[in-house]
Here is the input.
Amino acid sequence: MAKNIVLIGFMGTGKTTIGLRLADRLRRTFVDMDREIESLNRMSVAEIFRLHGEIRFRSEEKLLAAKLSDREDLVIATGGGTVLDEENVAALMQNGVLVCLDADAVDIHARVSRKKGIRPLLGKGATVAAVEDMLQAREPFYACADLRIITTGKSLNETVNSIIDNLKIMGHLPVAPAGAGPASGGNPE
Ligand code: S3P
Here is the structure.
């Protein structure tokens, strides 16, 4: 049994896409916190914000973070604001290694603009400057990460490889013995 790999970071840094690919490579179960909250509440994050307010969403997020702290071997994608709450950080760290995905404001702006309307905290007309301001305000919270990975300028595979290589160096993933390939039936990666 191994610690969860918990992806944190600002909106639009690729936590879901990268988390899915990482879980696939490591043959682990993937949990996307926003999607889990949506399925528990049978409504989208945007609807929860609109109908019940941010406080309700944050309380759902906190309950889920606490619940996930009892699990092992997962890859977890958090929401961009999950680590703004220190109790969530403590819960996720209890049995997890925190990996922050970083991207620059221009990159984030381009990504979130492609999916308008699903992120209640970044309005439809959010500018690069608004993203930059929010990014700077949140930077101290993302500093809790055990590992930070820059995604800007990297392909999905390069990012996933970089996470895996670093987690191996840090001792959070097994390093396959020389010569061991997939056919040997050894550990994934
Ligand atoms: C939020 C980020 C969103 C979602 C919610 C709040 C935030 O997740 O949890 O809209 O506070 O940054 P993504 O980071 O997946 O967009």
Observations:
- The pocket of shikimate-3-phosphate is lined by residues 11, 15, 34, 45, 79-81, 119-121 (CB under 6 Å).
- The chain has one domain: 4-169.
